[in-house]
Structure prediction request, 1082 residues.
Amino acid sequence: MGIQEQYRSEAASLLSSGEVKLVIGFGAGSTADRRRPLFARTGEEANRFVLDASCIANLSTYLLTEGLLSDGKKVGIFLKPDGIRSINILIAEAQLKPDQVVILGYAIENGQLTALEGRSVADFNGVNEKIRSLALPPAVQQDIERLEAMSPVERFQFWQDQFSKCIKCYACRQACPMCYCRRCIVDVNQPQWVNTSSHTLGNFEWNIVRAFHLAGRCAACGACDRACPVNIPLRLINARMGREVREAFDYFAGESTDQKPVLASFSKDDPETFIL
Amino acid sequence: MSEPFEPKIVAFVCTYCTYAGADLAGTSRLKYATNVRIVRLPCTGRISPLFILKALQKGADAVLVSGCHPGDCHFTAGNYHARRRWTVFRALLSFTGIPEERIRFSWISAAEGAKFAELINSITEDTRKLGPFTQYQELQTIIETQSTY
Amino acid sequence: MAKIGVFVCHCGENIASMVDTGNLVRSLSDHPGVEVCNEYKYFCSDPGQETVKRAIREHNLTGVVVAACSPRMHEQTFRKACAEAGLNPYMLELANIREQCSWVHSNKEQATGKAIEITRSLVEKVKRNNELKPISVPVTRRALVIGGGIAGIQAALDIASAGREVVLVEREPSIGGHMSQLSETFPTLDCSQCILTPRMVEAIQHPNIRVLTYSEVEEVVGYIGNFTVKVRNKARYVDIDKCTGCGDCIQKCPQKKIPSEFECGLGNRSAIYTPFAQAVPNKPVIDRNRCTYFKNGKCKICQKTCQIEHCIDFDMQDTYEEIEVGAIVVATGFQIQDTSVYGEYGYGKYKDVITGLQFERLASASGPTAGKILRPSDGKEPETVVFIQCAGSRDPSKGVKYCSKICCMYTAKHAMLYAHKHHHGNSQIFYMDIRAAGKGYDEFTRRAIEEDGAGYVRGRVSKVFQENGKLIVRGVDTLLGKPVEVAADMVVLATAMVPQPDAKEFAKRIGIGYDEYGFFNEAHLKLRPVETATAGIYLCGACQSPKDIPDTVAQASASAAKVLGLFSREQLEREPVVAAVTESTCAGCWGCVMACPYNAIEKQDIKDRNGKVIKQVASVNPGLCQGCGTCVTFCRSNSIDLAGFTEKQIFAEVMAL
Prediction:
């Protein structure tokens, strides 16, 4: 039995036994290699789940839908390692309750799917080596290195060119499971810290502030990148921040559900080589 | 160039250590460059990255953030939190091409008036060499032209 | 509409000589919102302040900027002036154009330009200032003193004598602390018990003092003026109210060979015991781990001996109580360092190598040898005693970096006591420096040398070993530059004073800071030596740093004065620079809760009309918040703001630069 059939039947039994009220997974999309989210409420609907190498989206963001979990019932969800990290972060930040989530975990390596063992959040608490190793695609790593090799002036120009395309549609924010604020900083107008119109300065500010807010919270799922209609490589900046907190504070975002937010905690021995 | 470039430097400081250190530089009549403008905050913990972005928008060629030495924070831990934030924010700015030399951080205690004066002089001198931060300031002019539409 | 008054001070020539004040006034007069702009020679003078007040009244000003000296200098002066003129005192900002402008620059044109910018940005800030009121906090006028040594006793007596209630908590069965173990005290050589015991009795009999011995502070919650303290009263197995202290049970206890903590192992005690004869309260306690009944389920001889019914109760349990107090004095004292780290000195290996505290017990009239200085090994009088100073102190490699402060003095005292008791004895003291600063201290050490024949050898000891029944002390005399060997009968180590082993854990529990060793941190080493960074918690005695009895008592009285100052009012007024949460936008991520150094942010339930919790948001307790603003910076959605330094204010200030 392939992983798709295995998870279809597992989702169906979760639903028909009443253990979960909903399973969030993937359904067929508009083209052969696109998938769209599928929300199954019955065992029958679960048979429409698709699980293959095209299922790359991080579905955890749907768990934050207003009111979805307020009845205390459980929801099942298809998650890759990045999605599991997102769940851990959301639990650490009190946005989710661990006992309301049933994880149908899978990993994609070289186009091959494998099922991840464990169903409860606790099974993935203390993210294992496999999840760590899949944290950052090599292509992203290479792009970061390419940017870092540039002079600051070139780098600034690179980002200026990128950010000048931004139309402030906030699709990145919408796609990101970490952007759960009830009011985004960009919508604060007393005072207006971030210019809202989509000129380059405001775009610069918006993207810097968003990256700062994601530092140590990004699961590197790339949802922002895929959501961006003008193809700004947003995941580079977030991945660079992920590397920073790992190197400076040995912090791997989403490692566990009781992790303290990296910027709300400190160690007296934190590095400070740059402070005069 | 006829006149030497005079950089604009904005300093965000905590009131208990660095602001008091700057006061000490004054009472000791130490002389330093006039280029710095000080914004007083209760603690380095209150200094938000947004302040730095706004200072850059207002044409700062360099920004200084300064507070109490580790272990000396009046609020016990504000500077430790700040230090983490700065580590991350500095890496972020650097990655977006905002040179590290333009965003400076220091610990200056209430007793270090001389350190404050020397630091302002050296940052002013360094920034003179770097020249104006036109790359960022031009973003601002892009707004102005856009906003006339 | 904002109506701002700007007042430019010349400060005599201090500002006016370097800043063109006329130009400053002209520039600011045209600034939007500035209603009136004046200059004057000294605005801090009476006529200067009158000018400000008159302007506030005449122009109905909504805010004031005084361009003058540092706010650290005259903010209070002008706040008061504003208040007297009917303007909220927090609608004032000081533009620092003296310390941070005129005094540090020598180019008048540039200095003037800078002064204009400084003043302008503060005008923009003050336009957005909010009217604030000092925060009133009620004060529970009862103090908790933690630790019943001389520090705690003194603090408790001073507070109680001023008419305030005190709860004195001591974890041992008796108050008295280390001082009760000492024989004579320097520099007067009066007997420690003779001067301490009356204080102990006064404390337990004082109508305003409640002494809780054999009790520990488990938890402290709350804030200045309003602490709730959870105290665990450990099961004593003796009803302290019924017990008459006759001591029959102690006599009859079959377990007699338990090394006494009070005697530093040089004497024994029974399983039911009082730590020492003058214990206060003089009521015994059963050592559960050593009691035959608790071990074997049989014995109860003490209970059978006791004449009072139900006085000894083997079923007694720990009890807990919560006490409301307004201030806390921490006086938890010290311990001596474990000297076994110095294998070369042979402590633990040779019975006659003892610590200074053990020597105190030998010299004490109430001690195991009734005041005779005898060798623990064979009970003989030692002919030669070697004292090793800095056995742990000032030794970064093995011991502690700091000076334990009391050892020079007590070693001189020990040599003296030894000379007084053994007229022909020979004492040799290995020392690094003789630190005898204090009233009568240097005279005291001179007396030890000149009158009592103490031989001081400047140098370190490398090894102590046994040979032919003698302890051979091998060291170096650095003044002569020669190695020395002394054949001693007894070696006394001046061990370092260290914090209590659980000091750090205790500090975390009650919320105060500590240094690398575990000594508690004062708010300011010089200017606020008995306060901690946590308002309402004070320090005294050796828990803050090593100190002798005179310093400890002085500090205890100082902390009592601080407590009484706090208790002089029913309400406490605090600067209203505190954070507040916008509930509607808080996402409840609790980053602020974790970041707050004061545990001032709590989770608050938001309920619907039917009382159902619909969400939880952060809520700042203004009594606990100290106003650092770390939470504000953390909050991604800007749902917390800090009064006096709001986002709007800072934004305006920066944007006007």
In short: Helices of chain B lie at 18-27, 49-57, 78-95, 113-130, 134-147.
